[in-house]
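Recall that a protein's primary structure is simply its ordered list of amino acids. Everything else, from secondary elements to tertiary packing, is in principle encoded there. The following example makes that idea concrete.
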Amino acid sequence: MSRILFLGDIVGRSGRQAVIQHIQAIREKEQIDLVIVNGENAAGGSGLTKVIAEELHAAGVDGITLGDHCWDQRGFEKEIDDLPFICRPFNLFKGSPGKPHLVLEVDGLRLGVVTMLGNQLVKISSAAGFPVIAEYIDSMREECDSILVETHAETTSEKMALGWYLDGRVGAVIGTHTHIPTADARILPRGTGYITDAGMSGPYDSVLGRDIEPIIRRFIDGMPRRFTVAEKNVQLHGVIFEVEKGKRGCQSFERFKMVVD
């Protein structure tokens, strides 16, 4: 049996520092075998850099996923191919740099990790994921014993539909992107663990990780403002699930929360 921790979107300096400082203690306390995080907001709240990715990896993060902000940091598209522990969404257009999925191995278990970028209300252009995700997962089966699918999407309906569509085909379907942890963590009837959004790892005295006042003012008067990254009430949110080689779906699936300060 392997225990996997997935942490939702790391937001800004406070979020990534919390992960770096506490990940080893979490691994020991929760007896975690693999750690996967979404890192697409780790650099200043938008995007990722090679330096930050390597810091997270050195601290104890085994794999890093990305989403619609994957190219926000200048030059990262030239760095991603030097970072074998990172994958970008599999359904970005053909020719995009970076790995479309990961295979992480621990104690003989090979876990495939793939992110599907949603198409509803997501600003970055990508190919439709739904028509091809099942075929793509099937192509991974020879190199994987279990598969984690991250659905990085704006609408709850798109995430939930994917969970039902993939139930029984993968170990877990975990939603990200909207930064608000949902209360629907469960194992679906055919064995796949599911949650609509794992939440973010970052400052919760905020609006989705950004300082509150500028966003409130934007809603009041409609004027453009710089949305600075917040820093208070840092929490880590995600999911811990268990998979076993040779068994369908997952054996347990539950939310994870840690209040840092």
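The chain has a mean pLDDT of 93. The first helix runs from residue 12 to 30.
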